[in-house]
Design a protein that fits this description.
The complex is a heterodimer of chains A (about 120) and B (about 200).
Chain A (H helix, E strand, L loop, with lengths): L16 E2 L2 E2 L4 H15 L5 H17 L9 H15 L5 H17 L11
Antiparallel strand pairs in A: 1-2
Chain B lengths: L5 E4 L10 H15 L5 H10 L8 H11 L1 H9 L1 H7 L9 E6 L4 E6 L8 H4 L4 H4 L1 H9 L1 H7 L9 E6 L4 E6 L11 H7 L2 H5 L5
Parallel strand pairs in B: 1-4, 2-5, 3-4
Helix pairs in contact in B: 3-4, 3-10, 4-5, 8-9
Classes of the chains: A mainly alpha (about 120), B alpha/beta (about 200).
Chain lengths: ~120, ~200
């Protein structure tokens, strides 16, 4: 397996990490992290652009008086990712909403023991 | 494979819906993959490099303590969430945990025939193979074959129990303590405990 190029983490102040790299409290955070890295690798935005957009999101949150203790870091990360993906024309809010509901529905209606698959 | 060495446990008729943030990530990820903007294999490869990065290996500490402290082990086997919480590890999604004890007679193997049910508060991120279609389907129909691929040969008369995780109930295997470890400390014992042994694909 190829070792994926690691992004420049020094551009991300506030990123929860240790000496070995980023750390995650829950699996979805790692998935959101990986999506941003891979979209940047694919050239849909630069890592510097990502860092600036994320910083703006974090700053806006701080402006709303949200605690700056890192607990919401990946929620801001996901907000930024959804926003940037739309700004780059990769998806739109309607598609995101519809797909989220489709997943929720698939979970509700799939008997256990079978993979959850979206009905298309 | 003979039929008597396999039990397939169904705990729930349908599945719980994951929390909002997980659904948003799934929605975005599936849309990006579908349009070809990201390669799912590349995403998995990157996540794989970070799979041990959710906290410390909490599960190994639970196992080591259970090996050394029979009363803790008894509590762990009867009320795993409470016993695990004693060590300060909580389940963020509120799912229940069941600990399955391996013995010379019974070997437990954990799978999730879905994609995402994994006791990550104690084991970290699921490895890519755990999420693969091959593992998810074959663990149920050919557990002995899967175990062989992990280099785990069990005596013919060892019963294999396959446990299908759900969003509500997740499983942690309590592996057998290796022999000649009587002189080790709890910390040294914890270092011996691998993630794979706590999923049940290997022995120690």
């Amino acid at each position: 397996m190829n070792q994926p190029n690691q992004p420049d983490l020094t551009q991300l102040p506030g990123l929860p990490k240790d000496e070995g790299g980023p750390i995650f409290a829950e699996p979805w955070q790692a998935q959101a992290f990986a999506m941003a890295v891979k979209l940047s690798h694919a050239g849909y935005f630069t890592w510097t652009e990502w860092a600036a957009e994320l910083a703006a999101e974090l700053k806006a949150a701080a402006g709303r008086g949200e605690p700056d203790d890192g607990s919401k870091y990946y929620q801001h990360w996901l907000n930024t990712l959804e926003r940037l993906a739309q700004a780059k024309g990769l998806t739109n809010q309607q598609a995101l909403n519809d797909r989220k509901e489709a997943w929720a529905d698939a979970y509700r209606h799939t008997p256990h023991g079978q993979p959850v698959i979206l009905k298309r | 494979m003979s039929g008597h060495d396999q039990h397939y446990h169904h705990d729930h008729e349908h599945q719980a819906v994951p929390h909002d943030l997980t659904l948003r990530v799934k929605a975005l990820e599936s849309l990006l993959i579908e349009k070809g903007y990201v390669d799912p294999a590349a995403l998995d490869a990157l996540i794989d490099t970070m799979e041990n990065k959710i906290g410390p290996r909490n599960g190994a500490k639970v196992v080591a303590k259970a090996w050394l402290d029979p009363e803790y082990k008894a509590r762990l086997l009867t009320d795993a969430p409470k016993a695990i919480a004693e060590l300060g590890f909580l389940s963020a999604e509120g799912e229940s945990m069941v600990v399955l004890e391996n013995t010379p007679q019974v070997h437990n193997l954990v799978v999730c025939t879905l994609c995402s049910c994994y006791p990550w508060p104690v084991l970290g991120l699921p490895p890519v193979w755990y999420k693969s279609n091959a593992y998810r389907s074959r663990a149920v129909i050919d557990p002995r074959g899967i175990l062989k691929e992990f280099g785990t040969a069990l005596p013919e008369d060892t019963e294999i129990r396959v446990w299908d995780s759900t969003a509500e109930v997740r499983y942690l295997v309590l592996p057998e303590r290796p022999s000649n470890t009587e002189s080790l400390t709890e910390e040294q014992l914890a270092d011996l405990v691998t993630r794979d042994s706590m999923v049940g694909v290997t022995k120690l």
